[in-house]
TrEMBL record:
Family the UniProt entry places it in: Belongs to the UPF0145 family.
PANTHER family registered for this protein in UniProt: UPF0145 PROTEIN YBJQ
SUPFAM superfamilies for this protein: YbjQ-like
Protein name: Heavy metal-binding domain-containing protein
Amino acid sequence: MARLAELQPGRPGSIFTSDLSVNEFLLVRQAGFRPLGLVLGSSVYHVGIQVGRWGKNQELGTLSQAMYHARELAMTRMEAEANVLGADGIVAVRLEVELKEWGTDIAEFIAVGTAVKAEHGGNWRNNRNQPFTSDLSGQDFWTLLQTGYMPLGMVMGTCVYHVAHRKLGNVVANIGQNTELPDFTQALYDARELAMERMQREAERLQAEGIVGVNLSQHNHTWGGHTTEFFAIGTAVRPIRADHEIQRPTMVLGLDS
């Protein structure tokens, strides 16, 4: 809180901090937003244990909830710091998981981004009256506004899934053959679908028109080869105004695309 107090706009001698590149910084300013400071949230979380049936495809709901809740805590704390600064939003957010040496079931979940304020006013907060969050780069954020859309918030969905082990008879029967493994295919398909569906539900709660910049990743963490997490994340958006028209972006001389 002491660090954030020194970043308060209008405070004599206050400076901003940002992890934006020089190009991103310039484009965010050109988009009409002023960086206020670097904001972050952290949660060191103990992920519990859940045992899946050896030969069955199934979601491990306890682990799914743990991975979601830990990220949500980090995001909420980052947003709270942005609120202290009076920010309208947070751009270029990075959401990371770092395993710690304190134990194989302990990880730190970190959210960090640059809080920004609209220079010409307007209501840029989402329907929860929270600063918008976006993992778009400074360039993509500028382009999004040029097209007449605004970010509402980062939305995410996760699914920790246990993929069934193959029976010995199936392993032996498939030796030396090119063949699809339908149980594996269905397991990975179902897990991705669950993560995507949960991300979409979050966007609906923000009354978004769509989600841009979606990234669907897979992480094994420390659970072993047959348990994996599918994580979907993107930026929910809506039109700035009902009659918006897409503008052709104006090139900025001296900047690399």
